[in-house]
Each structure stands twice: as structure tokens, then as C-alpha cells.
Design brief:
The structure is a homodimer of 107-residue chains. Chain A has 107 residues and is an alpha+beta fold. Chain A has five helices and three strands, in the order ααβααββα. A three-stranded antiparallel β-sheet of chain A has the order 1-3-2. In chain A, a hairpin with a 2-residue loop joins β2 and β3. In chain A, α2 crosses α5 and α3 crosses α4. The termini of chain A are far apart. The interface between A and B is large, with 45 and 45 residues. The structure holds a DNA duplex (30 and 30 nucleotides).
DNA sequence: CCTTCATATGCGTATATTAGCATGTTCGCA
DNA sequence: TGCGAACATGCTAATATACGCATATGAAGG
């Protein structure tokens, strides 16, 4: 199988931890559609700017996204394709699981 | 793109949250190789039994694993293939990212 | 330089997570 | 029925997270 050394597992767990928050996940999904600056995200997700910055910091630290200065703005984008892939897989998983359950079990 | 409703995103975030712990991830990876009872995991991962049970509970609640009584033991296995897939993707991601960095940056 | 827009940081607080230890509960078997 | 094995649960302390709010930094333009 894969390399399942403690370090690798730990790093993977950190990866999941960074994605384990609805707001951060929303940011990632947004960025998987198109790059955006903080203010774009603020308006799009309707969250206070400092909060978005905080979450962005977490995502940056986890190396899930990357920022590039563009005048006064900083344009963020996904660090690599794997990220979008993992997120999209999770959504698929959730959707399928949801479909399996009897109608109206998710509320 | 996918269905990115708040509910779906929230559910996906919970999925990641359940995977966002080295011990739980180790359990999942172990179970992705073969089904096992609690005591197997205890010995394999060298963790106190109550701790394993606790983590198993989290994974169960998140519907990532399923338990089947088998005499006095309860044999756990992954609830579905997606789980193993997502975990394996994360490991791959980590490994690749690691490969990109200058030698010896991960210690 | 001074102002303004874009983003980041600091701090306090409510809440969640993790782990360790002791104790229940359930099952199989003599 | 009584005992031991396999799991689960309860409780507590330590630590980490998410958030709101105020404020600081950095870049552009006049």
C-alpha cells in the first residue's frame, strides 16, 4: 500500500484538519472555480473580512492555497489540483451517502 | 460544478473532521487493508483500548466505518470505498508535496 | 506625506477535542 | 450462575479552535 509512516499520516491529518471547516471548505471550493482576492471571498461568502483572513491563513499554512500580490490585492488560488480533487471527492461521497438514506433523514 | 449547498459543505467538513486526527486516520488506513476488531487495532497501533474505542465511536458516528458483532468481538470495516479513496488521495498529496520540497525539510 | 483601500494581526471568550483513568456493559463459556 | 474477555462509557484536565471586535500593516494615488 501507500507509505503510512507516522509522519505521512500526521501530515495527511493536518491536511484534513485544514479542510475540516465549512467556511474553509467553502473558500477552497470557491477558489477551485476561480482565483479570488480576500474581498471577493468576503462578499461571496458574506463573512467578516478578518474571519476570512484568519481562515486563509490556516489554508496558507497548510499549503492548500497560494497568494500572489496583484497591486493592492492578493489573489489566492489553490496550491495544486489534488486539493480540489479531494474536496470534490468528499462532496461526491456525501451526496451519494445522502442518496442512499431514506427520504428526509438528513434534517 | 458539484452541489455546494451549505448542507453538503457542512457534511463534507464533518467528514474531514472525522479524518483530521492521526490516530483515526491510522485506524482508517488499517481498516482499508483489512477488517479488524478493537483489540487488533489496540495492538497494532499500540494505544490504550478506551482511546481506540473513543476514536472508533467518532468514525462510526461519521459513518466512515461499520461494526459487525462476531461473537465477543466487533469487527470493524470501512463503510464504503470512497473513504479509502479520499484517505489514499491525501497520502499521495502529502507524499508529492514532500517530494517537491528541498531535501530534509520535513523534520 | 497623508489618505484610503486591501489585508493581516492581536486579544478575549465560548466551545470543542484529545487523552488518561476508572468503571460499565455484553458476550461466551465452564 | 459466575468469571474472564472484548468493548463502551463517564469524568476530568489540558489544549486547541472559531469567532467577534479593534487595530495594525502595506500598497497606491493625489
Amino acid at each position: 500500500m501507500k507509505d503510512s509512516s507516522p509522519e505521512t499520516i500526521g501530515a495527511a491529518a493536518e491536511l484534513f484538519k485544514a479542510m475540516a471547516n465549512p467556511r474553509r471548505l467553502a473558500i477552497l471550493l470557491r477558489l477551485s472555480e476561480e482565483r479570488a482576492c480576500v474581498h471577493d471571498l468576503v462578499r461571496r461568502l458574506d463573512l467578516p473580512q478578518p474571519l476570512v483572513s484568519q481562515h486563509i491563513r490556516v489554508l496558507r499554512t497548510a499549503r492548500l492555497i497560494r497568494g500572489e500580490r496583484r497591486g493592492r490585492e492578493i489573489v489566492y488560488s489553490l496550491a495544486d489540483h489534488h486539493v480540489a480533487h479531494i474536496a470534490s471527492d468528499a462532496l461526491t461521497h456525501v451526496a451519494e451517502e445522502d442518496a442512499l438514506r431514506p427520504t428526509g433523514t438528513h434534517t
